[in-house]
Amino acid sequence: xxxxxxxxxxxxxxxxxxxxxxxxxxxxxxxxxxxxxxxxxxxxxxxxxxxxxxxxxxxxxxxxxxxxxxxxxxxxxxxxxxxxxxxxxxxxxxxxxxxxxxxxxxxxxxxxxxxxxxxxxxxxxxxxxxxxxxxxxxxxxxxxxxxxxxxxxxxxxxxxxxxxxxxxxxxxxxxxxxxx
Length: 180
Hints:
Blueprint: E1 2-6, E2 12-18, E3 23-25, E4 30-32, E5 37-38, E6 43-45, E7 50-52, E8 57-58, E9 63-64, E10 67-68, H1 72-76, E11 92-93, E12 96-98, E13 103-104, E14 109-110, E15 115-116, E16 121-122, E17 127-128, E18 136-140, E19 143-148, H2 149-157, H3 161-176
Parallel strand pairs: 2-5, 3-6, 4-7, 5-8, 6-9, 7-12, 8-13, 9-14, 12-15, 13-16, 14-17, 16-18
Antiparallel strand pairs: 1-2, 10-11, 18-19
Protein backbone atom coordinates (compact mmCIF):
# COMPACT_ATOMS: atom_id res chain seq x y z
CA UNK A 1 0.00 0.00 0.00
CA UNK A 2 1.42 3.35 -1.03
CA UNK A 3 0.71 6.42 1.10
CA UNK A 4 0.22 9.76 -0.62
CA UNK A 5 -0.80 10.76 -4.11
CA UNK A 6 -0.05 13.67 -6.43
CA UNK A 7 -3.04 14.49 -8.62
CA UNK A 8 -2.52 15.89 -12.16
CA UNK A 9 -2.61 19.46 -10.83
CA UNK A 10 0.32 18.65 -8.54
CA UNK A 11 -1.74 18.68 -5.34
CA UNK A 12 -0.37 16.29 -2.70
CA UNK A 13 -2.88 14.03 -0.90
CA UNK A 14 -0.91 12.72 2.13
CA UNK A 15 -3.67 10.49 3.59
CA UNK A 16 -4.66 8.81 0.34
CA UNK A 17 -3.64 5.15 0.13
CA UNK A 18 -3.44 3.34 -3.20
CA UNK A 19 -2.23 -0.23 -3.74
CA UNK A 20 0.79 -0.57 -6.00
CA UNK A 21 -1.24 -3.05 -8.08
CA UNK A 22 -3.89 -0.46 -9.11
CA UNK A 23 -3.83 0.29 -12.85
CA UNK A 24 -4.24 3.93 -13.92
CA UNK A 25 -5.33 4.50 -17.54
CA UNK A 26 -4.96 8.15 -18.58
CA UNK A 27 -3.76 9.21 -15.12
CA UNK A 28 -3.58 12.83 -16.28
CA UNK A 29 -7.41 12.90 -16.13
CA UNK A 30 -7.83 11.19 -12.74
CA UNK A 31 -8.37 13.47 -9.75
CA UNK A 32 -8.40 11.82 -6.34
CA UNK A 33 -9.03 13.82 -3.17
CA UNK A 34 -7.44 13.09 0.20
CA UNK A 35 -8.24 10.24 2.59
CA UNK A 36 -9.18 7.90 -0.29
CA UNK A 37 -8.33 4.18 -0.20
CA UNK A 38 -8.01 2.05 -3.35
CA UNK A 39 -7.32 -1.64 -2.79
CA UNK A 40 -5.51 -4.24 -4.89
CA UNK A 41 -5.96 -4.93 -8.61
CA UNK A 42 -8.47 -2.18 -9.32
CA UNK A 43 -8.65 -0.27 -12.62
CA UNK A 44 -9.09 3.51 -12.68
CA UNK A 45 -9.84 4.73 -16.23
CA UNK A 46 -9.42 8.45 -16.77
CA UNK A 47 -10.17 8.57 -20.51
CA UNK A 48 -13.33 10.66 -20.03
CA UNK A 49 -12.32 12.18 -16.71
CA UNK A 50 -12.55 10.55 -13.30
CA UNK A 51 -13.06 12.38 -10.00
CA UNK A 52 -13.02 10.56 -6.66
CA UNK A 53 -13.91 12.75 -3.71
CA UNK A 54 -12.52 12.61 -0.19
CA UNK A 55 -13.01 9.69 2.14
CA UNK A 56 -14.04 7.20 -0.55
CA UNK A 57 -13.01 3.56 -0.19
CA UNK A 58 -12.66 1.30 -3.22
CA UNK A 59 -12.36 -2.45 -2.75
CA UNK A 60 -10.18 -4.92 -4.64
CA UNK A 61 -10.82 -5.86 -8.29
CA UNK A 62 -13.05 -2.82 -8.89
CA UNK A 63 -13.24 -1.39 -12.40
CA UNK A 64 -14.14 2.27 -12.88
CA UNK A 65 -14.51 2.99 -16.60
CA UNK A 66 -14.96 6.31 -18.41
CA UNK A 67 -14.86 4.89 -21.91
CA UNK A 68 -16.25 1.93 -23.80
CA UNK A 69 -15.05 0.45 -27.06
CA UNK A 70 -17.72 -2.26 -27.26
CA UNK A 71 -19.18 -0.77 -30.45
CA UNK A 72 -15.98 0.64 -31.96
CA UNK A 73 -14.23 -2.75 -31.94
CA UNK A 74 -16.90 -4.20 -34.24
CA UNK A 75 -17.16 -1.11 -36.44
CA UNK A 76 -13.41 -1.05 -37.13
CA UNK A 77 -12.71 -4.78 -37.07
CA UNK A 78 -9.05 -5.45 -37.89
CA UNK A 79 -8.44 -1.71 -38.38
CA UNK A 80 -9.29 -0.79 -34.76
CA UNK A 81 -5.69 -0.08 -33.77
CA UNK A 82 -5.06 2.06 -36.87
CA UNK A 83 -7.25 4.93 -35.64
CA UNK A 84 -6.36 7.07 -32.63
CA UNK A 85 -8.49 6.52 -29.54
CA UNK A 86 -10.19 9.95 -29.61
CA UNK A 87 -10.81 9.82 -33.38
CA UNK A 88 -12.77 6.56 -33.36
CA UNK A 89 -16.46 6.65 -34.17
CA UNK A 90 -18.55 4.73 -31.65
CA UNK A 91 -15.82 5.05 -29.00
CA UNK A 92 -18.03 6.15 -26.12
CA UNK A 93 -16.48 8.51 -23.55
CA UNK A 94 -18.15 10.03 -20.48
CA UNK A 95 -16.87 11.20 -17.08
CA UNK A 96 -17.41 9.41 -13.77
CA UNK A 97 -17.83 11.38 -10.55
CA UNK A 98 -17.72 9.67 -7.17
CA UNK A 99 -18.84 11.65 -4.13
CA UNK A 100 -17.52 11.91 -0.60
CA UNK A 101 -17.34 8.94 1.76
CA UNK A 102 -18.59 6.45 -0.81
CA UNK A 103 -17.83 2.75 -0.34
CA UNK A 104 -17.40 0.59 -3.45
CA UNK A 105 -17.28 -3.14 -2.67
CA UNK A 106 -14.89 -5.65 -4.21
CA UNK A 107 -15.52 -6.60 -7.82
CA UNK A 108 -17.96 -3.77 -8.53
CA UNK A 109 -17.91 -2.16 -11.98
CA UNK A 110 -18.71 1.52 -12.57
CA UNK A 111 -19.60 2.34 -16.19
CA UNK A 112 -19.07 5.61 -18.13
CA UNK A 113 -21.20 8.67 -17.40
CA UNK A 114 -22.15 7.77 -13.83
CA UNK A 115 -22.33 10.05 -10.81
CA UNK A 116 -22.35 8.43 -7.37
CA UNK A 117 -23.72 10.59 -4.56
CA UNK A 118 -22.05 11.27 -1.23
CA UNK A 119 -22.28 8.54 1.39
CA UNK A 120 -23.49 5.85 -1.04
CA UNK A 121 -22.58 2.19 -0.64
CA UNK A 122 -22.11 -0.06 -3.69
CA UNK A 123 -22.23 -3.72 -2.71
CA UNK A 124 -19.58 -6.19 -3.88
CA UNK A 125 -20.04 -7.31 -7.49
CA UNK A 126 -22.56 -4.59 -8.37
CA UNK A 127 -22.69 -3.16 -11.90
CA UNK A 128 -23.36 0.60 -11.81
CA UNK A 129 -24.75 1.85 -15.13
CA UNK A 130 -26.71 4.91 -13.95
CA UNK A 131 -26.49 7.58 -11.27
CA UNK A 132 -26.79 6.72 -7.58
CA UNK A 133 -28.32 9.18 -5.12
CA UNK A 134 -26.54 10.25 -1.94
CA UNK A 135 -26.71 7.65 0.86
CA UNK A 136 -28.23 4.90 -1.37
CA UNK A 137 -27.17 1.31 -0.77
CA UNK A 138 -27.22 -0.57 -4.08
CA UNK A 139 -26.62 -4.18 -5.10
CA UNK A 140 -26.95 -6.41 -8.17
CA UNK A 141 -26.96 -6.34 -11.95
CA UNK A 142 -28.93 -4.37 -12.83
CA UNK A 143 -28.51 -2.73 -9.46
CA UNK A 144 -31.41 -2.09 -7.13
CA UNK A 145 -31.55 0.39 -4.28
CA UNK A 146 -31.78 -1.81 -1.18
CA UNK A 147 -31.37 0.71 1.62
CA UNK A 148 -30.03 3.98 2.96
CA UNK A 149 -26.64 4.26 4.68
CA UNK A 150 -28.03 6.78 7.16
CA UNK A 151 -30.11 4.04 8.79
CA UNK A 152 -26.93 1.99 9.36
CA UNK A 153 -24.91 5.01 10.45
CA UNK A 154 -27.51 6.08 13.05
CA UNK A 155 -26.86 2.92 15.08
CA UNK A 156 -23.20 3.88 15.53
CA UNK A 157 -23.42 7.64 15.97
CA UNK A 158 -26.49 7.75 18.22
CA UNK A 159 -24.61 7.26 21.49
CA UNK A 160 -21.21 8.78 20.65
CA UNK A 161 -21.04 12.58 20.54
CA UNK A 162 -17.63 12.60 18.82
CA UNK A 163 -18.84 10.33 16.03
CA UNK A 164 -22.01 12.38 15.64
CA UNK A 165 -19.97 15.60 15.38
CA UNK A 166 -17.56 14.12 12.82
CA UNK A 167 -20.38 12.60 10.77
CA UNK A 168 -22.31 15.86 10.72
CA UNK A 169 -19.21 17.75 9.51
CA UNK A 170 -19.81 16.34 6.06
CA UNK A 171 -23.23 14.64 6.03
CA UNK A 172 -25.32 17.62 7.15
CA UNK A 173 -24.20 19.55 4.07
CA UNK A 174 -25.51 16.76 1.84
CA UNK A 175 -28.81 16.46 3.69
CA UNK A 176 -29.46 20.21 3.67
CA UNK A 177 -28.15 20.71 0.13
CA UNK A 178 -25.32 23.00 1.24
CA UNK A 179 -21.98 21.93 -0.16
CA UNK A 180 -18.88 22.50 1.87
